[in-house]
Amino acid sequence: MSAKKRLQEARFFLEELRDSLQSLPQDSPTQMKSCYYLSAFQSAAVSVVDYLLEDANIEFSLGISLDEKLRDIFESKAKEIDNKAALDFLKWWREEREALKNDPIGKLLTDKRHIGIHRRQTKPDLAKIETGGNLSFSGSLGIKHPCQDKLVDTCKTPEQPPTRPKATETNFDWFFSDYPDEPVITVCGKFLDKLARLVSEAERKFPQHETES
After folding, report:
1. How far apart are CA 32 and CA 165, in angstroms?
2. Cis omega (within 30 of 0) for bond into 158
3. Quick check: 158 and 138 in contact, CB under 8 A?
4. Among 2, 56, 148, 193, which has the minimal tally of Cβ within 10 Å of its Cβ?
5. What's the predicted TM-score (pTM) here?
6. pLDDT digits 0-9 by tens, 101-126
């Protein structure tokens, strides 16, 4: 599976996560479903970077087998066959991977994916609910108008509109307590955008490294 296909997989789980996070009421089965989608999204999304390296292994004909540690021997294999394009790719890949690790959102989701795979399930643990309604106004209005070369103050009470039930809008979002500034779905969406940029940039910078559609 190419990095682009892995990216598509992450996008699929992101949309499933979006639907489940916005469902009300948030009962236990719904919350559990959201956790499953979040776990699947994190696994697919974080691995896109490694899939890029595997794509390069294939495209540059390095011949590194699946039972070998790709990160450890990619450079030595590229040097062994004097593949400068592969070495240029590796330099770019390492820089981008490091930048992603130092990015607040990239680090957050990468760490949570590591914990989720090796230690315990990670899940949104902070809920915020905002409610609002229509604001109506009633009262007297003071109006000044000219009358016989003088300004006269008058008051007029507007007719009361028919009473209507107030529409109330409820916004519900899940957050990570260690990153409470943005909803989980926004954080995941931004991370996916960063990964999509990486895949596109790999194709642009290294034309022979175009991933499968």
Report:
1. 35
2. no
3. yes
4. 148
5. 0.77
6. 999 999 999 999 999 999 999 888 88
